[in-house]
Amino acid sequence: MTAGQPEPAGLAGLAVSYLAASTTGGTGRHVLMLASGCAARGAAVTVYGPAALGQQASRDNAGAATTGQATGGTVTGGLGTAGLAKGPPPGWRFVPVEIADRPRPASDTAAVARLRRRLARDRPDVLHAHGLRAGAVAALALAGRSRGRPALVVTVHNAAPPGRAAAILYAGLELIVARRADVILAVSGDLAARLRQRGARDVARAVVPAPAFVPASAADAAAVRRELWVAGPATRPVVLAVGRLAAQKDFGMLLLAAARWQRRDPVPLLVIAGDGPQAAALQAQAAADGVAARFLGQRGDVPALLAAADVVVVPSRWEGQPLIVQEALRAGRPLVAARAGGIPELAGEDGAVLVPPGDPAALAAAVTRLLDDPAAAAAQAAAARARAAALPAGADAVDQVAAVYQRLARTAQAGRGTR
């Protein structure tokens, strides 16, 4: 904190519970970051979510060299808070609450009942749900409660996946969340607008920063280059994409774009890091179309991959505040991304070359222009680094939610005083 900046909001005496339905797409990491930061500011924190989230918390605990123990299905301890506060935060709890990823009446009813019991026992001042499914479960668990009801905050992380059935389901979830949440935080402007149309009264843009980025060393970048050169000459340019191999990311369209540059000499190597339900189909598509591509699976060395890439591409049909865009900007890599969801707000008009989503010709043209024009690529890399300087950090996200929690607590106290 520098001179002249306000003191971070303290949360001593406030009980905050988090609810997550999924750990995919960075949601789980974001929840744990907020839990850690708010615990460090004095809040009594409980996290409800799938068992995988508790396992991730335990791994982070061990990695941060903090203390903790798992007993009776509850994980207690603190997470590392680099950049948020000095020293370890106070202990916080994890309680397993499984929420199905699609409508299942029996399991949904059980999740609502379990959450209602936990809330009656824990009596938080604020319940912060992440995702529409979690938000709807939280709203139903609080239904009918007036005395001692916690304020409900919902962060909406995703738009509806493709398909009419999914659109209908998401519309229903949006209505529940919009009408019952006290505050909604949306990861992109288009989501915020949709929820206002559904009747939400208090909507703001969520701050979802990527974890602290540590650039790869020259040795790590060189090692990745050597690994990739197995597929071709050392002079071959590398086009990198990172993400879950799912329909939203539109890697199938990326392969159609890559098919357009297969006659170049040398042929650019398309490298895709990630795993997901479309892995086999995408590999089959690349083989059928004769696309020079390497599928690396899940990787833990994304900074080294970024350092080895000549161009980074994000072809998604929709994104909120994708971590890979933030990481590419911080790595100072030339970036080509779809003008979809929250990407334009995140990258700005200069931080990336933005192309229409679902347009393989436009994507291929943008990539090959950067490969053919070193000066343009260097200018784009410099613009990415400049944009990265304006990206939020973890402390900014905690500042945002802490201010929301305090405002809701003051409103609740005023209401009790009036009664």
Task: Give a description of the structure.
By secondary structure, this protein is an alpha/beta fold. It folds into 2 domains: 213 residues, Glycogen Phosphorylase B (Rossmann fold), CATH 3.40.50; 171 residues, Rossmann fold (3-Layer(aba) Sandwich). It has 15 helices and 15 strands. The strands form 2 sheets. A 9-stranded mixed sheet has the order 3-4-5-2-1-6-7-8-9, with helices on both faces. Helix 7 packs across helix 10, helix 12 crosses helix 14 and helix 13 packs across helix 14. The longest helix is centred in the last third of the chain and has 25 residues. The chain is elongated. The N terminus is likely disordered.
Task: Produce a short descriptive summary.
The protein is elongated. The chain is an alpha/beta fold.
Which strand order spans the largest sheet, edge to edge or round the barrel? 3-4-5-2-1-6-7-8-9
- Give the class from helix and strand content and strand pairing: alpha/beta
- Unreliable stretches covering 5 or more consecutive residues: 1-7, 65-90
Question: Which percent bin holds the helix content?
Answer: 40-55%
Outline, from the CA principal axes? elongated
For the termini, the CA-CA separation is 40 Å
CATH class group of the largest domain: Alpha Beta
CATH architecture of the largest domain: 3-Layer(aba) Sandwich
How many individual β-strands?
Answer: 15
CATH topology of the largest domain: Rossmann fold
What is the H/E string? EHEHEEEHEHEHEHEHEHEHEHEHEHEHHH
Overall pLDDT score: 87
Radius of gyration: 22 Å
Q: List the domain count as a whole number.
A: 2
Number of H/I helices: 15
